[in-house]
């Protein structure tokens, strides 16, 4: 199991590093602070209307969540010396990642 | 310019103490003296009861690893002058049980080392070569870096994962396994796999990277471990996706 | 070791120091490591933020407007400032410190030095960011 979780973690690490800085800079800072005027709804709707965009975003969401699950698990193990609670920690981390992936699939595929 | 410097050395005398204590020694500060020369000066002239390990004095034997001002160092390659005006804290290596003063017990590593089979393994189906097994310079380059390890244990002392969980196989053992796995003359990679890809093997490593930072021989155990994670993950994928015959 | 065992020359009584819970505060490199690992929490927060945005756009112009107002509120804004710092820490450590060590990239049979792999990652990062920006800003 561990090798596959590690592959998800690594893929998520790469995708997060490449895509999130630009996305978060724009939507988290640049638009709210008025540095750049935000795109209008029609434009964003058209971009998200492309299936390719939504598939890439879904990939980003799922892999980023598994990236979090893996790292956070080890941070709890080592950073707080909680390795003896391995089972509940794993349940929490990977359970949350699975639930988040389900929500992401619903929002990006089913509900669109 | 002062010509003396203070070493604050950890003493632990198990016959009379339950906890280590610090003892200060003032020694001459000489340009060409390493910490180890300072310790030898103490042993010869100030206090013959001080215990520590050393042998070659030239960064090859790997016996004189200690913690100098909080950093794992080879004391034969760490110079007094770089820490002037002092005082310099000299402590035993972290993460190992202390036997006496600056001497630690590395038995745990010595028990782990043979598990990764650090020798060339040849397939038993093939008859042994009549002469030597030839190797190209490029093939040698593949593993040469990992073969520089002198088992000085600085990487174990720097590794918080090992400090927290002694079951972890540890940086040097994994790097040494890779030294043989990547050797073109070796055929034993599959025999080392079970130990390496166990939960206490590579997967326990969280890539803190300090093992590579403190390595006096530039072995890069952290890199070796991450490379092996990728190899092991690919092997697992193959096992999952390919039919038995095609592996 | 238990205190009861008596010391003899043939039976050492080891001293094993206890590792404090906040061991990672004692060394700069350990602190940086824990901060790097904690960046994953903000990666997860970004997924939540992104899904809220996607949902708002899907609901229509009014919800999208409301999302923009919400994200300009002091609470969300300061959270995102912190999040961006951690995300940049993640991107920099991952692309330039971790990946170049871990990846073996070969060109004509020769292993590329870590610096070249890092430079390749930088190019990929710039291209990906430019693509994202051009898609969003039109």
UniProtKB/TrEMBL annotation, chain B:
Catalytic activity line of the entry: a menaquinone + succinate = a menaquinol + fumarate
Residue ranges of every copy of the 4Fe-4S ferredoxin-type domain listed in the record: 139-169
Domain 2Fe-2S ferredoxin-type: 3-96
InterPro entries for the chain: 2Fe-2S_ferredoxin-like_sf, 2Fe-2S_ferredoxin-type, 2Fe2S_fd_BS, 4Fe4S_Fe-S-bd, 4Fe4S_Fe_S_CS, Beta-grasp_dom_sf, Helical_ferredxn, SDH/FRD_Iron-Sulfur
Cofactor(s), names only, from the UniProt record: [2Fe-2S] cluster; [4Fe-4S] cluster; [3Fe-4S] cluster
Keyword presence, Protein biosynthesis: no
Coiled coil: none
Protein name: Fumarate reductase iron-sulfur subunit
Automatic annotation (TrEMBL), chain C:
Keyword Manganese among UniProt keywords: no
The UniProt record lists the keyword Nucleotide-binding: no
Matches recorded under Pfam families: Fumarate_red_C
Keywords assigned: Cell membrane, Membrane, Transmembrane, Transmembrane helix
Parts of the chain that traverse the membrane: 33-57, 77-100, 112-137
Protein name: Fumarate reductase subunit C
Organism of provenance: Actinomadura alba
